[in-house]
Amino acid sequence: MGKIFIKGCTIVPISGPVIEEGVIAVDGDRLYYVGPANALPAGWQADTVIKADDKVALPGLVNAHTHAAMALLRSYADDLPLKEWLEKKIWPREARLTREDIYWGTKLALLEMIRSGTTTFADMYFNMDAVAEAVLEAGLRGCLSQGLIGFQDEDGGRLASGVSLVKEWQGAGDGRITTMLGPHAPYTCPPEYLTKVADTAAGLGVGLHIHLAETKGEVADIQSRYGATPIALANRLGLFELPVLAAHCVHLTAEDISILAEKKVGVAHCPESNLKLASGVAPVKAMLSAGVNVAIGTDGAASNNNLDMVGEIRTCALLAKGISGDPTAVPAHQALVMATLNGARALGLDKKIGTLEAGKKADLILVNKRLPHMMPSHNVEADIVYAASGNDVDTVIVNGKILMSGGEVKTLDVEEIYAEVKKRAG
Ligand SMILES: CSC[C@H]1O[C@@H](n2cnc3c(O)ncnc32)[C@H](O)[C@@H]1O
Ligand SMILES: [Zn+2]
Prior knowledge:
Blueprint (H helix, E strand, L loop, with lengths): L2 E9 L7 E9 L2 E7 L11 E4 L3 E5 L1 E6 L15 H13 L4 H17 L2 E8 L2 H11 L2 E8 L8 H13 L7 E7 L7 H14 L2 E6 L3 H11 L3 H7 L7 E5 L5 H9 L3 E4 L1 H6 L7 H6 L3 E4 L12 H16 L7 H15 L17 E5 L11 H8 L5 E6 L2 E5 L2 E2 L4 H11 L2
Parallel strand pairs: 1-4, 1-5, 6-7, 7-8, 8-9, 9-10, 10-11, 11-12, 12-13
Antiparallel strand pairs: 1-2, 2-3, 5-14, 14-15, 15-16, 16-17
Helix pairs in contact: 2-3, 2-14, 4-5, 11-12, 11-13, 12-13
The structure holds ligand LTUXU72L and zinc ion (ZN).
The site of the ligand CSC[C@H]1O[C@@H](n2cnc3c(O)ncnc32)[C@H](O)[C@@H]1O has 17 residues, from helix 1 and strand 7.
Keywords: Hydrolase, Metal-binding, Zinc
Function: Catalyzes the deamination of 5-methylthioadenosine and S-adenosyl-L-homocysteine into 5-methylthioinosine and S-inosyl-L-homocysteine, respectively. Is also able to deaminate adenosine.
Cofactor: Zn(2+)
């Protein structure tokens, strides 16, 4: 780790105004200084100096909802609605995945995430100990949840695996790994099962990661079964007494939005997955106005079909404008806040990450601005949101460790990953 000195960059700290020709000093796993060059204490000596006058520094991006191992299923089933996609294609294929498939699928996803500037991700899947191993090696931060499908868990084995994940992995990798329990959705987890999972999570002191209100069909189904919307049902069952990360939240009533705000539920908005599965468009502008903490996620690579958060930020901003007819909806700065600080908050990590401020963990990215589509730069936040892509990310640092520099990922063997996923893709 040691000391890193990044000099001459444009800094988008998220917590304050953009700093031109700034410097960032990293000491061990923390940010020691972020600001103009003239205020860095004299005599501060670094082991590594990064000359970054053609780069923009941002907090690492937080992918607030994904299923990393589904990178193995990229383009396996496309152009279908969610129910048919899951029931006819994805679940039968997932039933044949081995622990090793999940490990290598996750490694592919981690490689893609590092390359496109994600430093933290929230994951829900099976065999999460394999995911945790991959995260330890790759060097990212992961908030990991064992996925729990109630009707596949009659003997409680899946929930027991979720409990083991929390007990064995919470805080591992110098705190890079955190955990939650992941009840899949109200249409796969009956109320008694949801309550049991919530009680278990409360006993362990962790939160819940769940899909809620993704399609019109789900809302109609839950309404007819339980006489409540998915959000109202989750609230009635007491889930929102815990920290909850709720993916999608597309089809909401005004009452649902009030509940999400009041209960401080973190919403992972997944615009590209929602568009591709034609699930609908989440009411992001209304949620933000009501004070809901809305973050951004890609969902899995089988429904997106990439894990590029820079592209997802752009889709989020454009879609909010297009659907509302209001070009001021989700302006560039707001979109960046959603992908960084709001993501950190939704994962319970905002004291540690999400902004570039002295004292926080050193999770940051440097984006190349010496590119035709990034010039002449009247507004660097707008350049990142409306013009950049994940390919423009040059350097990624997590917990003070350089994971990628000059576009080269240091912690993963790219050729080995490609060979393994090719072998396992069938
Ligand atoms: C129980 S592990 C996670 C489970 O979720 C499935 N999944 C992937 N994308 C979605 C989505 O958009 N909505 C609902 N469920 C989804 C995944 O295939 C796993 O089975
Ligand atoms: Zn999902």
